[in-house]
Specification:
By secondary structure, the chain is α+β, with helices and mostly antiparallel strands. It has helices at about 1-25, 35-40, and strands at about 45, 50, 55-60, 60-65, 80-90, 95-100, 105-110, 115, 120, 130-135, 140-150, 155-160. Strands 1-3-12-6-10-9 form a six-stranded mixed beta sheet. Strands 2, 4, 5, 7, 8 and 11 form a six-stranded mixed beta sheet that branches. β9 and β10 (about 130-135) form a beta hairpin. The longest helix has 22 residues, at about 1-25. The protein is globular and about 35 Å long.
Length: about 160
């Protein structure tokens, strides 16, 4: 009986793992293949840099206390986490998609106001990509804040939504 139970458990576990693998990156609400390609060659980028639309950066984060946020993050970060501030020039279409390789909170600030996201998709089973957030903004400069990251580096892609 014990062998039967162990065998059934092994079959169920492997089936669940296979289903999770199949879901993987396909479980996002929109494709993330562009991010996967960009993350592979993302250049090291310091906090405070300008992020280009259509590109990725391997962003160096700092302790959240030293990040220099323009506004307090919408979700208060724990004191032992990391963050960064960057700028972006929003294209004339006004929509951007920010995708992250790991856990972190994203705030976008334009004209001194935090902008609510227009869409969000997060998946824990996609290798190298954790979340993707869309924003509808006015063309022109914006500030992007990353907070609550558990590691001191984060790959970030800023793209026009497909």
């Amino acid at each position: 009986m014990k062998k039967l139970f162990i065998s059934l458990f092994a079959i169920l576990a492997s089936t669940s793992f296979a289903i999770a693998e199949e879901a993987g990156c396909e479980a996002f609400k929109w494709p993330v293949t562009r991010e996967q390609a960009l993350f592979a060659a993302a250049p090291a980028t310091p906090s405070g840099a300008t992020l280009a639309v259509g590109a990725a950066a391997d962003l160096a984060l700092v302790p959240v206390e030293k990040a220099g946020f323009a506004l307090a993050p919408e979700r208060a970060p724990a004191s032992d986490t990391f963050g960064a501030v960057a700028s972006v020039e929003v294209p004339p279409e006004g929509a951007i998609q920010i995708s992250l390789s790991g856990e972190a909170w994203v705030d976008v600030i334009q004209d001194g106001h935090a902008i609510k996201s227009a869409g969000y998709s997060g998946v824990k089973t996609c290798p190298g990509i954790r979340k993707s957030v869309r924003f509808k903004l006015a063309p022109g400069p914006a500030t992007v804040q990353f907070s609550g990251a558990k590691k001191a580096d984060l790959k970030v892609a800023v793209l026009a939504p497909e």
